Amino acid sequence: xxxxxxxxxxxxxxxxLHFSIAKMQDIYKLRNGKVDEPHRHNxxxxxxxxxxxxxxxxxxxxxxxxxxxxxxxxxxQVHQVIENEKSEGFSMTFSNQFLVENxxxxxxxxxxxxFQNYGQSPPLQLESKDFESIENFANEIVxxxxxxxxxxxxxxxxxxxxxxxxxNTSCAINPMESDIAISGASLIRNFKNAVNQNFKKExxxxxxxxxxxxxxxxxxxxxxxxxxxxxxxxIQARIIxxxxxxxxxxxxxNKEIAYQLGFKEPANFSAFFKKHTKLSPSHFKKREIK
Length: 290
Known about the structure:
Elements: E1 5-7, E2 19-23, H1 24-30, E3 39-41, E4 44-51, E5 54-58, E6 61-64, E7 67-73, E8 79-83, E9 88-94, H2 96-101, H3 106-111, E10 124-125, H4 128-145, H5 152-170, H6 178-198, H7 205-211, H8 216-227, H9 231-249, H10 254-260, H11 266-277, H12 281-289
Parallel strand pairs: 1-3
Antiparallel strand pairs: 2-9, 4-7, 4-9, 5-6, 5-8, 7-10
């Protein structure tokens, strides 16, 4: 089985381009309506959907297109856009390099409750008035991107921040006081980084809490208040996402995947996978390949 296709640069013809935006209807026309195969990027993607019909698959979860939606795809996520007809909206991509060059701290992106690297990544559904504001920002970005304006990428960066801040405000679960929010965002960022480095060996909330020098209860309360799920649920989602990727995009056996993900017994991995997906690893693989 071939590995998942990975786009490492935003534009293969312009290696120094770290930002891009295009209208979805133009992309559809360019591809003659052909559906791209599942793939991943080494950069961030934002889909601003005015109206569309079809589905968007992100890490093997399917979300139906409609109107006034915004999708956020983090680096490394496997996704596929399947349109039944020409969509209307924007596809925007940017890299960490773009953030650095335009004075946008990477910690700002990581503190947002938008790019859900693992587990469910449903679209943000906006009211018409709120979506119109985002759409206006996107149109301004398109004008700048296609212009020769001085410091245009710095201006684009400013509009990008406005879009992300507006979206984050719309999906805030439990806004905190400013000083708590800052420390909470730092804690969540450090926790996510720790999980990403250790999830193949460590599955317990207690381990990560000890690494962060806090109690498991404090970690769970802060994470749930900001993200809407417990720390344990996030760890489990990270394991399940990796398992799905390995099952579909590698030739490893269930037993090999179990050991690679830190399960001492393959049966424990199968039970864990079925509990969270309602399918055995083998049935999941057969379904997705079909």
